[in-house]
Amino acid sequence: MASNTKSKVLFDSEEALMMVKELRVTFDCGKTRSYEWRISQLKAIIKLTEENEQEIYQALHSDLSKCETEAFVQEIAMLKNSCRIALKELKHWMTPEKVKTSIATFPSSAEIVSEPLGVVLVISAWNYPFLLSLDPVIGAIAAGNAVVLKPSEIAPATSSLLAKLLGDYLDNSCIKVVEGAVDETSALLQQKWDKIFYTGNGRVARIVMAAASKHLTPVVLELGGKSPVVVDSNINLKVATRRIIAGKWGSNNGQACISPDYIITTKDYAPKLVDALKTELEKFYGKNPLESKDLSRIVNSNHFNRLTKLLDDDKVSGKIVYGGEKDESKLKISPTVLLDVPRDSLIMNEEIFGPLLPILTVDKIEESFDVINSGSKPLAAYIFTNTKKLKEQFVMTISAGGLVVNDTTLHLAVHTLPFGGVGESGVGAYHGKFTFEAFSHKKAVLYRRFIGDAPVRYPPYTNTKMRL
Ligand code: NAD
């Protein structure tokens, strides 16, 4: 459904084609290229967020029972911050970058000009449905593109709110929303785009990349993975535990792409860590966490059943040391810690994306690096340690989208760091200037004058010319 229709209609490939054609005409007339247009749309995103904050909270609560504090800090504030950075830096980002030239082109000058790619598609996921939809759109607009946003159908309240708000506040001749699921996304994917920015799982990412390859369309794929936390024994355990909890259960109840997926610690230290997790979890969420208003629910019954299956696996029977409570009617699962789960259990062989946290144990903490490197490259990896050498080894040997030493998930909030995966966890990156670059072509421009012709460039090639 297109945003400006504001009602549910089947969106097929013919409509998708018409929409892309219309956007291409608008893009070609140059409207989206001007600095003023980009600024006006970015300001409108801030305005739509500020004027509809309550509606956004309600939608996020309806989709995920996300509490207001999390919704504010992790979606609204982050989105506004992204927008403010783009507003502040846009002139600078758009300014051509002067670069050195070579003796072969003397005399000359050169610059790199950032130009918009054209008409781009953003396909978003359900877990941070407001932020993950609009954050790439900010970059697409800042870079001067026309854009179609396809929010996730799994967060339907936020999806329809986005369609309404973008319809009401933004320039619909250049920015459109298509709501829908597989059929609508497939119709969009059949079209020729100048960039596709996809957030979601690796299975669909392969469908997106295959569709993009038909038109040689470049892609950004923001995916997930099993993000590990290494916990050494020489740390401030209370601080580390609280930071692990904030990154796991304080981030959408574990339904976040960079949530800690599992912990690795030493056999000797594990009991202390488990005790600390129990103490802090009880302080945060009380004795009956299923009743806590500060924990999001599981998004839907498919994901609830998927997580239940991970707990029902015979291989993890008896391994729960904290939590494990469920309420299917409310789609709630309490924070759950499992100790010494086997490496071949189901829970260790897929991204958990929920409130379950297994702990693996090793004899020596250095062995944890081999455990991590034996799997796919994760989106994030974390270590808590006070040992300089271990920090250095971690940074040098662990390949992941991003690393954090002595905390979890916060690299996401540093707009000067690229956010994206490597290998199975993704292709490309965004945030801050990296989002602008993800939606720009860096055009190489060389300026020459009519002097400075080396005779050796032109035939007949003679030894005399070679010496000149
Ligand atoms: P999802 O189910 O919302 O799917 C993402 C998008 O893909 C949706 O818009 C959906 O309509 C579309 N889609 C689904 N099936 C499709 C198909 N067959 N063909 C075409 N399009 C299709 O989200 P999800 O995949 O469950 O999201 C969770 C995953 O996303 C996790 O792996 C998580 O780690 C990852 N994730 C990554 C980031 C990041 O920034 N790297 C952020 C959030 C989530």
Mean pLDDT: 96
Give the number of helices: 15
Record field, number of beta strands: 18
Oligomer: single chain
Are there runs of 5+ residues with pLDDT below 50, and where? 1-9
The major pleated sheet works out as: 7 strands, mixed
The ligands bound in this entry are: nicotinamide-adenine-dinucleotide
Strand order across the largest sheet: 10-13-14-9-8-15-16
User: What fraction of residues sit in β-strands?
Assistant: 15-25%
- What percent of residues adopt helix (DSSP H or I)? 25-40%
Shape: globular
The chain-level structural class is: alpha/beta
| CA distance, first residue to last residue | 67 Å
Q: Over the alpha carbons, how many angstroms does the gyration radius reach?
A: 25 Å
Active site: 222, 257
GO molecular function: aldehyde dehydrogenase (NAD+) activity
Family: Belongs to the aldehyde dehydrogenase family.
Protein name: Aldehyde dehydrogenase
